[in-house]
Amino acid sequence: MKPFTYERADSPAAAAAAVARTPGAKFIAGGTNILDLMKLQIETPTHLVDVNRLALDRIEDIPGGGVRIGALVRNTALAADRRIRKHYGVLSRAIVAGASGQLRNKATTAGNLLQRTRCPYFYDTAQPCNKRAPGSGCAAIGGISRQLAVIGASDHCIATYPGDMAVAMRVLDATVETVSPDGGTRAIPIADFHLLPGDTPQKENALRPGELITAVTLPAPLGGRHFYQKVRDRASYAFALVSVAAVIHPDGSGRVALGGVAPKPWRVDAADAAMKHGSRAVAEPLLAGARPAGDNAFKLPLAERTLALVMSEAKAA
Amino acid sequence: MKFDAPAGANPIDKLRVVGRPTDRIDGPRKTTGTAPYAYERHDVVPNQAYGYVVGAGIAKGRLTRLDVSAAKSAPGVLAVVSTLDMDRLPLSKMNTASLFGGAEIQHYHQAIALVVAETFEQARGAAFLLHPEYQATPGRFDLQAHEDAPLVGGSSGEGSGGPKLDRVGDFDMAFAQASVKLDQRYTTPDESHAMMEPHATIAAWDGDRLTIWTSNQMIAWNKRDLAKTLGMSPDKLRVDSPFIGGGFGGKLFVRADSVLAALGARAAGRPVKVALTRPLIFNNTTHRPATMQRIRLGAGRDGRLVAIAHESLSGDLPDGKPETAVAQTKLLYAGANRLISMRLATLDLPEGNAMRAPGEAPGLMALEMAMDEMAEALDMDPVRFRILNDTQTDPEKPGRPFSQRQLVECLRTGAARFGWDRRKPRPGTVRDGRWLVGMGVSAGFRNNLLQPSGARVRLDKRGTVTVETDMTDIGTGSYTIIAQTAAEMMGVELDQVVVRLGDSDFPASAGSGGQWGANNSTSGVYAACVKLRDAVARAGGLDPDRAEFSGGRVAAGGRSIRLADAALHGDLVGDDRIEYGSLAKQYQQSTFAAHFVEAAVDGFTGEVRLRRMLAVCAAGRILNPKTARSQVIGAMTMGAGGALMEELAVDKRRGFFVNHDLAGYEVPVHADIPHQDVVFLPEADPVSSPMKAKGVGELGLCGVAAAIANAVYNATGVRVRDYPVTLDKHLQRLPELA
Ligand SMILES: Cc1cc2nc3c(=O)[nH]c(=O)nc-3n(C[C@H](O)[C@H](O)[C@H](O)COP(=O)(O)OP(=O)(O)OC[C@H]3O[C@@H](n4cnc5c(N)ncnc54)[C@H](O)[C@@H]3O)c2cc1C
Ligand code: SF4
Q: Min CA distance, B648 vs chain A (Å)?
């Protein structure tokens, strides 16, 4: 950990301005990801702007349907919220499938969206890694890749986005709301929020310097049955090998997104359109163009089988 | 006390305190956070500074440059100790890789520097300023590329061993002629101890005398080996390790934390504390080496084994030793024609060394899966097949009996309790919704090791009995069973006994390793108590041969006095150690178990989830059924890890274990562990020791993984012979869900 300075912001715009003002500054929310990375000097902010007191911790109904989730709503609170459980079950299920009770008590909605990859080489500063040290190379390519991406990756980086919550938000078509250092606001569709690595794997999302997430909004409830199926080697407290977030209607139509397979929550329109035709029909467009890295080719049949599981549960209901 | 004839009746047989399920006497200290663990011993010496260990970022080669200037002038930094400052430190008996000194890098994360600062954060921050430069040289990292490695015999140093090649009868001929045969290959991965408490030490010099407060399983080894590494006389070194947050063999030996704490304290001129950070533990310390094993079994149609061959390959650094995965196969089953061999490849991965049940744990993962496959080939129930091939004598030396061997009883008892008769022999046929369900069994086997062990027992005028020995409690319950032993021997209640452990100023004990701790350390206490009883009787003017100790009193010839009164004029002390004669040569001493597992496999995703586990153990007298049960359920949990998830992932290009944290190296969590049951069969083994006990801590692990893998096979019909049995290995071969 490098020495850093610290301040507590008292309004969203002031927080954004504070980060924009200080080179190397970052926000800190629950701290469950950034502090770990700072200890290993994977992140070396010079200044931390604490956003925990910004009063962005409410879940509000949006007139005309939908909810606005404050950026600082803790994962535990979000998963337990009655509206979320009732109308957006996929989101509740995804959250409780992640991390541990203690971590979810601390983790925030914005911080969770921005959690960084779990590629093991990213965590070892003696190893080349384009995401951590741009231009140094990628140790994972040709190395241990069982956890890593099968689709959407590049020759510069094959890391996955490791989270669960965002996969559910992707299937729900959430929108990320932000405020910029100049006070301007933006609404970024979740589909555009996380970026593919291309030749800049260090650039993971659409946020601009200093831009602060203030909320995530969910559109009006979709109905249907909600599923989040997370597959992993141990029963709890492990990142997904593959996860499936799905909303399925009684007629078999619906939507689906995958976690654990790509640098971002993975959703493809053509796959949604095929939902009535079974897991094979969905998996084909969803994973078209996949390029497994070696140890992780099993994720392709696993994704299809997990889809089949979810679809069979939907039928059984 | 020399133990050279089977034990007769003795005061332990009363079983007034010993043998009863007893809460840990150190439990309240642990649950209130007042049990002192090495890194938090703030009170033992003032002015402690913090050391941060830096590990090499290459697997093999030389460190060509380490720029200490920036680190030295960083805020709060007191000293930087560089491996380039000194020649390679002497290698102690138990270490294979150098712990520090010199430019040569032998393995990834070998320590290259220690930064000492006022705070941990300052030390860690400055460590990133060293910018090491290396000249890397190619290394050997792939065990599979060394199948023709030379035959090498050896011992685990922790209780199992074997010659490089051992033949009994004529294996080749018997195998060729056998009516039913199996010839299969199995692999087990590198595994990490992953104990909760990291290696940690506080070191303080007083002139040329050094004290280390550390976390170590073997105090006497530690004292000897650290003195050698530091080039000092052991007389000037004190080692203190009263509480240990798990070791599993990872803390049997001196590691970089002690060496560097001592060097750092010398350089900084004040006490220094060092803990290995979690990412360092996997590559800087030792691990259980991967194995590639080949097993051939030949049997007649009646199911009797006529030929058994077990060959194992493992790797280690130059001058290292083999993982003795064939050891149990010398003793577990009957069969006239046998072949055992071990090969050792030279690899440049971190040092392989003992981990809980070294040898037997990976050996049984293979052997007991092979036995399952063979039973199926014979169309015979796997419990019956094992019972049929039981032997009551050493199969290599038929004149040498087992002192006790209740493997058959373990299997029968377990089968009855588990409801084994409900198992469907045809795999892949039991469904519970989308889950494929199966049952598996395995035998468990671990040798019983005898080691000399000393203790000093003191009686004072308040009637308190204080036991002192350098024995360690690595979470196993040593404090409690030692107190039970002393209470039983002296006829007092448990709360009148004080136990002090882990200090090298106390008499040297067997230490905690090879599941020998409980039996040997309590036998040492027994011996010291025999001396103390004698002293007490004499002080009270009683006939020592007739003295009876009970209710805090000693009585003989119609006269009785309070123990406290015997010590009125000064403490009475018994100081002795147990030593063993040749009984271990005349009798094979081993412990046995049968493990039963029910597992379910998700028919869609292939995820394996355990449902029930049962261990039936026969392991001599169980000194404390409560702490023994804890040992076994912990071991079963470790077996679940070995079966289903634990694997150090080797980067074969870069030569290191990539998943070097607890997110990447998965061990079981609560949700993985279902209902666990443990049964101890009544047994007392007079050949083992005056306590008539053996060990259970490693037995509980031996065979578990195979029972799980066999249950998974029974569920799916897909045999996975490469551990761990992860879903990717059977996913596409699972039976169709109707
Ligand atoms: C052991 C462990 C296991 C885990 N397992 C899982 C799992 O299974 N599934 C899963 O999904 N997750 C898992 N996680 C990740 C966990 O969900 C994240 O650490 C957590 O959600 C991060 O939230 P936080 O508020 O603590 O973020 P922080 O650590 O505070 O911040 C993370 C990042 O977000 C930035 N940031 C925070 N708030 C804002 C804001 N309002 N606007 C802009 N930027 C912001 C910070 O600058 C930082 O870069 C695990 C974490 C750990 C430590
Ligand atoms: S996959 Fe990405 S994160 Fe992992 S080493 Fe390569 S560049 Fe770094």
A: 11
